[in-house]
Write a structure and sequence with these properties.
Layout lengths: L1 E5 L5 E7 L2 E7 L2 H16 L6 E7 L3 E11 L6 H6 L3 H20 L2 E13 L8
Length: 130
């Protein structure tokens, strides 16, 4: 039998008991969940993880994740890329849903909401051809 309960912070505490198994628990530090969420958000949004800030607020059996990040946009002088790009608001909504699903799976607990704040734009750098 495995029981997962929320500890006072964000981390999970798992108690394992069964035939021949001693009772025990696993504590996951809050910073581990935060770093996991930052890397997942960076991967989904398409930016460097060092430019993503995440706060996690948890309750007894769920968590709310707040993400602040720049959002990738095409170079404005690339008219074809601008025309083909998904509007930022639509892309941000899709990223929120995907991040909620991924973090629920990774954390092993319900992520009830992902709030995303777009702090700026991140355009790809021009590559020099020699």
């Amino acid at each position: 039998m495995t029981t997962v309960t929320a500890s006072p912070g964000v981390g999970n505490r798992t108690t394992v008991a069964g035939p021949g198994l001693p009772a025990g628990r696993v504590n996951i530090a809050d910073r581990v969940l935060q770093k996991t969420a930052e890397r997942a958000a960076a991967d989904i949004v398409g930016v460097d993880a060092k430019n993503v800030h995440v706060e996690i607020v948890s309750s007894r059996d769920s968590a709310v994740v707040r993400v602040s990040t720049a959002f990738p946009v095409p170079r404005l002088d690339d008219t074809e890329a601008v025309r083909a790009a998904t509007p930022v608001l639509d892309a941000a909504r899709a990223a929120q849903g995907e991040l909620r699903t991924r973090l629920t799976r990774l954390f092993g607990r319900e992520v009830s909401r992902v709030d995303m704040t777009i702090t700026g734009a991140s355009a790809p750098q021009r590559k020099r051809v020699l």
